[in-house]
Amino acid sequence: MNLKFGTDGIRGPVETKVTPEACLRIGHAVGIVFKELGWDTVLIGKDTRVSGYMLEAALQAGFLSVGMDVRLLGPLPTPGVAYLTKSFRNQCGLVISGSHNDYHDNGIKIFDNSGVKIDRKIEMMIENILNEEIASLPSVQIGKAKRFDESGPRYIEFCKSIVPSNISFSSLRIVIDCANGACYKVSPKVFEELGAEVIIIGNEPNGYNINKGCGSTNPDLIRTNVVKHRADYGISLDGDGDRVIIADQRGELLDGDDLLYILAFSNPNRTGPWSGVVGTKMSNLGLEEGIKKLGYKFVRADVGDKHVSEALLKHGWMLGGETSGHIICKDLVSTGDGTIAALKVISSLLILDKKPSDVLSNYTKIPQINKNINVKNKDIVNDKELKSLIKLFPDSINIYGAFYDGQMIAGVLNIMVKKGVALAFYISHKEDFQKLRPLNLLFFDIFKWSLKNNIKVYDFGTFTDKGIANMGLGRFKESFGASGVFRDSFKILF
Asked: How many Cα atoms are found within 13 Å in the side-chain-facing hemisphere of 292?
């Protein structure tokens, strides 16, 4: 079983990857590692997917088998689990959620005892024992499980506490789209108890409709309902509640970049922990320029609120986020929190006595296109040599990979040597799949790319092996129209 941590925990189809067996192994492995770290209790929350109860039982069994106690929180937003983990002290947390994906997928997110997502070192410790034989401790040593029914009320009170007492929501009409997910009970109550008139949509989960035509990945629904109900704001959350998109009274959508700018703009402090803001590689260039004009430093992290959080910790800063709507207010929460971010943005605008458009007129987004590509096998991008090259030459390297049944079977790395000249630096394939001619397919795409990008010369590289001409390799490269050239080489002896 090949289980590995990705950008945000372990995630995938319930039928093939995040199976009951996989979750039993995850609970067992995480339990062993956590006990070694001195944590003996795990809090387990989940979203509203139909598979949640099944996977919860499997995870619970794994944890109990190694002597860890379990507290079952029921449906609760991911940031709610993070908050309770930190609040309870010396306990860890786990969330069963496929985040913004549909109900076919599910996943596991894990927090340490400070409510922060576990780092790569701990992930590797867990991965190393995932395939070990599962054995239970003697009955007198196995863990105990019980439900904790106060998780929702505790999180609601925490959310309310971040709004200054002199700020009233009583004049606001707010539409909240709960994505038929983990926020469907708690988030509307937060705004209702703060005095707002709340219109709720996406609050009828049935196990299958999470994120379906609603939530932050389908923001047109909130845009339409804000206009329809003449609301002041629309708040669109995702399935596990860690990201948010907001609509203003005109139905204009505010993504994570916009929300980050509003929070930075409204903060009068530009020193110490407030001297910098963290975005990601996906953040709009206009946001970076706008943040810097406000007097902040700006740093880009890898995609994922986990990486944003790590960058904030590294620099000692408090504010960061992603275009997708993960916003981290580090002085309040340890992870992305859609409800907290919405509360903070609306409170800030009320204090400023400004509409979102008034603030956002101070920066201009630069047109850009972000394209997401699904990759089943990520080993190629984890190669140390490739990562080093890409870091050194970020605008001069592209990688082509051919995949079959989830594994990479061929690859070509191109380096743009200079304008109009590209070099094939790596050309490799798996012999078992030679009959499929994967390299031929890759070069077909590479040539299309070359023509499109005005590449005049395409260098296939050498056809030598340890200084000796490999004529078979030479003929392969010549089959695409290349011309072989022998080059003299010299060894200088001193």
From this structure: 10
Residues of the chain where predicted confidence (pLDDT) is lower than 70:
1, 368-395, 404-407, 464-469, 485-494
Asked if residues 347 and 340 have their Cβ atoms less than 8 Å apart, the reply is no
Q: Which fold has domain 379-459?
A: Aminopeptidase (3.40.630)
d(CA 312, CA 298): 11
- Residue 243 and residue 181: Cα distance in Å, rounded? 12
Helix, strand or coil for residue 232? coil
How far apart are the C-alpha atoms of 435 and 417, rounded to whole Å? 32
**The whole model's pTM is what?**
0.76
3-state secondary structure of 91: coil
DSSP letters, 429-485, are: E-GGGGGG-HHHHHHHHHHHHHHHTT--EEE----EETTEE-HHHHHHHHTTT----
d(CA 262, CA 303): 21
- Delimit the CATH 3.40.120.10 region(s) of the chain: 10-149, 155-360
Q: Which CATH superfamily is domain 155-360 in?
A: Alpha-D-Glucose-1,6-Bisphosphate, subunit A, domain 3 (3.40.120.10)
Gyration radius of the chain's alpha carbons: 26
Supply the residues annotated as catalytic. Answer: 99
What per-residue confidence (pLDDT) applies to 282? 84
User: 10-149: CATH homologous superfamily?
Assistant: Alpha-D-Glucose-1,6-Bisphosphate, subunit A, domain 3 (3.40.120.10)
